[in-house]
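retry 2 of 3: previous attempt timed out while embedding magnesium ion. Reduced batch size to 1 and resubmitted. Inputs unchanged:
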Amino acid sequence: MIKDPTDAVVRVDAVTICGTDLHILKGDVPETRPGTVLGHEAVGQVVETGADVRTVRPGDEVLISCITACGRCRFCKDGAYGQCRGGGGWILGHLIDGTQAEYVRVPHADLSVHRLPGGVEKHDAVLFADIFPTAYEVGVTNGNVRPGDTVAVVGAGPVGLAAILTARLDETIKIIRSTIFGLRSRETAARSGLRARVMRVVGETAPGSGFAPSVRMEGLLDTQVPKDVADHVIAVLGEALSNVARHARAGRTAVALGTDGREVRLAVVDDGVGIPPDGRRSGLRNMAERAEQLGGSLELTTPADGGTSLVWRVPVNEP
Ligand SMILES: Nc1ncnc2c1ncn2[C@@H]1O[C@H](COP(=O)(O)OP(=O)(O)O)[C@@H](O)[C@H]1O
Ligand SMILES: [Mg+2]
Ligand SMILES: [Zn+2]
Ligand SMILES: [Zn+2]
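retry 2 succeeded.
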């Protein structure tokens, strides 16, 4: 099976079918000859190496890269292995027999198969043959995605999902998804849904008071928060906002409401004068009682740079 001294033969233990394979079957890749074994992503064990192979030995668990690299041509020297002119590039399952087989011959093994670090599952590692690097390089690096950027990933198939993971965009995606969900459920929940009610309360409180709170909502608020809990949320939000408007003299106010299906959490944070240690407590007591009644809590704290942080949280049982 060894043809060149730089070859390794690998017993394939985990393999994938890539979208590219489907393109080949559809006829989009005419240079692939009929009868070629497809597949360019795999994890396996080295069974044989050519005389010139230095970095792996028989018995090693390895990742087979979708891209083979000679390491010597000017493209390889630039790190553009996909353009390799020395007999590498994308050749597996394309120009030569690929990984969807029991054994595969990998040319230029020194730079084209990689020993797995201990403790890495084969089925996890195989994602690094093509999908993750593609998503990271093409989507995140070439797309100039930086921490804190908001992006839309169009087409959340395997590569799209990998792009999300590699960009550590889970948080952003959560917001996008819940926003989309909010838009979708707008018709049914236009008047009665918790999201819509929150926006109304904020809109009603803000105009006269000269402040416009920022609002952030996350999770399936319209479906996972039962009506009676939603009523409490609206009452607490109204009281909290009226307190900010009447007492806080705040420059900024942030409203955050979210649910993970287990609890609903409302936070109203302002940068105003803060709550004096003693004095009347009627609205505040009312909010605490509403939380206790539902098995939750009200927490009032002072943020590091002053003001008031009110966090009201209660459990919800998924309907
Ligand atoms: N966001 C806030 N910023 C500053 N002070 C606040 C805030 N919320 C409440 N307070 C203070 O706490 C007191 C008690 O609030 P509350 O129980 O709602 O009663 P009320 O609003 O009727 O005065 C208020 O009178 C006010 O002094
Ligand atoms: Mg009050
Ligand atoms: Zn692929
Ligand atoms: Zn090369």
